[in-house]
Amino acid sequence: MATLISVLLLVIIGLVGLAGNTVVLWLLVFRMQRNAFSVYILNLAGANFLFCCGQIVCSLDILSDNFHSLSISIHRFFITVFTVAYFSGLSLLSAVSTERCLSVLWPIWYCCCQLRHISAVLCALLRALSLLLSILKGNYCGLLFSSLYQVWCQGFDFITVGWLIFLSVLLSGFIPVLITRLLCGSQWVQLTRLYVTVLLTVLVCLLCGLPWGCVHWFLIYWIKSGLVAFLFPLYLVALVLSCINSCANPIIYFFIGSFRQQWRKRRQTLKLVLQRALRDFPEGDEHGGSLPQETLEMSGSSLAP
């Protein structure tokens, strides 16, 4: 019964996440001029979209025994997609948090050393690395290295765990570094909507996204099989939380973009709300005012490398 409820929750949350990330992707691809930072958000929304797709298919696979028995290869494919999207999301968010830390700690060096298209290149490399780790990690490792399964596959498992620990350290260090620099730095840095957006996204990821990776690779994958049944409810909870993490990002963007703007008479479009959430300069009006759309467009293009 608990498994059925968890699977139904996964499907519902996954559908909400699909809708939210689809809106973000549509706005960033067709309605907004992309800059260096919005490229990260675009790729992160794509990773969350794939994560929700993989989670929905795998959940429906559990609900339907006939589908599972007829399509083992499809099930394996979507498990790989699910894992790729999970590592891509963590990697991209770690890159975003690292970039924000650099911009806060060494703002002059950060502005001078930005390279053209570095964000797009970094996103492509992180996606490729996530794909490689996901393929070599589990479902296809035995097929690729059947003669040396114990040696190679366990080695790739250690590499995957090491990468997960590295990403966890980066994400965990972002929040104290940002808060310390904003409150205790020698040069006062104003808290913009972009910093709040990244801060909330990282916090949700730490609370909802990382638990599934920790449970899957530390508590289940590396322990004796006798405890798997005991930890299975914890695994289901972590799985639901990971789906919430992929669903929460669009909600964070539109919440931050519309915060203190609800009393304005001007109609708020989703495009303006998302632009405002990614705005990396202080508010022009402390009482809820904001810059017009033309100014928002110019501010986004001025950040482009």
Chain-averaged pLDDT: 78
Give the CA-CA distance, first to last residue. 53 Å
Low-pLDDT residue intervals, each spanning 5 or more residues? 66-70, 285-305
Proportion of residues in β-strands: under 5%
The strand count comes to 0
**Percent helix range:** over 70%
Secondary-structure class: mainly alpha
Shape call: globular
- How do the helices and strands follow one another from N- to C-terminus? HHHHHHHHHHHH
Instruction: Provide a count of the helices.
Output: 12
Main sheet attributes: strand count, strand direction, barrel closure = none
Family: Belongs to the G-protein coupled receptor 1 family.
Organism: Hipposideros armiger (Great Himalayan leaf-nosed bat)
Subcellular location: Cell membrane
Keywords: Cell membrane, G-protein coupled receptor, Membrane, Receptor, Transducer, Transmembrane, Transmembrane helix
